[in-house]
């Protein structure tokens, strides 16, 4: 019996299978779960692969967890909703614009950095936010220090 047949049999018996990482979770009547469990255990790797493919888990995200709302996430990273990602990307773009203005970037460099920020992978988002925040904070501190020095009056008498 292959994974598809086992899943079909489980569904017929009223057992719903889902994944939590590589763990196959079963919900349904206890007697049906007890009946189908040995078959699932015997073909676990094929069933996990089948469920991951059905859930749309990309090959590079094996081990990812499936959110009840349908999203895939990795347990070792922070959970980010779509709204969180949108807010953080908007914040990042604003920081890039501010840094470009402070440093006087040429348009070509500005456009390149903005494109990379917009099209970059999600894994770059938090490090980029930290990087640009630190650069802006450093530039503002330098500017403030220069202003203090410029306001200072020197008495050479």
From TrEMBL:
InterPro entries: TubC_N_sf. Gene3D superfamilies: Non-ribosomal peptide synthase, adenylation domain. It comes from the Bacteria. This is TubC N-terminal docking domain-containing protein.
């Amino acid at each position: 019996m292959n994974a598809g047949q086992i899943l079909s049999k489980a569904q017929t018996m009223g057992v719903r299978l889902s994944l939590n990482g590589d763990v196959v979770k079963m919900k349904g009547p206890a007697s049906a779960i007890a009946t189908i469990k040995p078959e699932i255990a015997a073909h676990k790797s094929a069933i996990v692969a089948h469920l991951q493919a059905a859930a749309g888990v990309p090959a590079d995200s094996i081990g990812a967890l499936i959110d009840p709302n349908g999203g895939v996430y990795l347990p070792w990273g922070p959970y980010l909703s779509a709204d969180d990602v949108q807010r953080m990307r908007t914040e990042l773009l604003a920081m890039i614009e501010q840094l470009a203005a402070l440093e006087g970037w040429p348009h070509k460099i500005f456009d390149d950095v903005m494109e990379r920020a917009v099209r970059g992978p999600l894994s770059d988002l938090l490090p980029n936010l930290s990087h640009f925040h630190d650069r802006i904070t450093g530039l503002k501190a330098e500017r403030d220090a220069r202003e203090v020095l410029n306001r200072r009056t020197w008495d050479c008498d």
